[in-house]
Specification:
Number of domains: 1
Mean pLDDT: 89
Order of helices and strands: HEEEEEEH
Low-confidence stretches: none
Helix content: 40-55%
Strand content: 25-35%
Number of strands: 6
Oligomer: single chain
Structural class: alpha+beta
Number of helices: 2
Largest sheet: 6 strands, antiparallel
Radius of gyration: 17 Å
């Protein structure tokens, strides 16, 4: 490999590492505190909370009522300063429900995190109570 290619790959690697770092920093600084704020309330109401996936560019949060009734929120770094949030609801007798949101890491703030968490939990409980409205995937262009 010639020196330009080597230098280019090194710079690209640094840029990609920075994007992942920004994503992780946004999650840790904005979503995790909201998750922690809601954790006691949800636990008091029968939910078991866990974080089954914890990788540098992906993280998941599980809100489980039983083995076959749970909500997954999966965050994944997806591009230059962007991430994807997939919310998957599983309930007995229903097809899994999926919503997907794309946003910029810089736009992830406490209000956004609360709206996403509350919306995902509402959709999950709606499925359980059979008050199901078709979810609409929200795509946020940055």
């Amino acid at each position: 490999m010639d020196s330009w290619k080597q230098s280019f790959l090194e710079k690209l690697g640094k840029a990609q590492s920075q994007w992942v770092h920004d994503f992780e920093e946004a999650l840790e600084g904005k979503f995790v505190p909201v998750h922690q704020e809601y954790e006691p309330f949800l636990a008091d109401n029968g939910f078991k909370l866990s974080s089954p996936l914890h990788e540098p560019d992906r993280r998941s949060y599980k809100f489980e009522l039983s083995e076959n009734a749970y909500l997954l929120m999966i965050f994944r770094a997806s591009g230059v300063g962007e991430f994807e949030l997939r919310c998957e609801s599983f309930a007995p007798g229903h097809e899994p429900m999926l919503t997907k949101t794309v946003a910029r890491a810089g736009d992830l703030d406490e209000d956004w995190a609360k709206r996403q968490l509350q919306s995902a939990l509402d959709a999950f409980v709606d499925v359980l109570s059979e008050d199901v409205a078709e979810p609409v995937a929200e795509f946020v262009e940055g």
